[in-house]
Design a protein that fits this description.
Length: 50
């Protein structure tokens, strides 16, 4: 399970969860830095599903 958050702080004062699910689901959401990173990684990774 992966979470993508938007916000400037870590921990209890952190951001808001904007996406949750498998890496593929979070990447498809397009929300937050994590989604953008995962989308790129899934496009270029040798481990990505064919």
């Amino acid at each position: 399970m992966v979470h993508s958050c938007i916000g400037s702080e870590d921990g209890a004062d952190g951001g808001t969860i904007v996406a949750q699910g498998t890496p593929e689901q979070v990447a498809k959401s397009g929300k937050g830095h994590t989604a953008r990173f995962l989308a790129e990684e899934l496009r270029t990774s040798k481990y990505a599903a064919a």
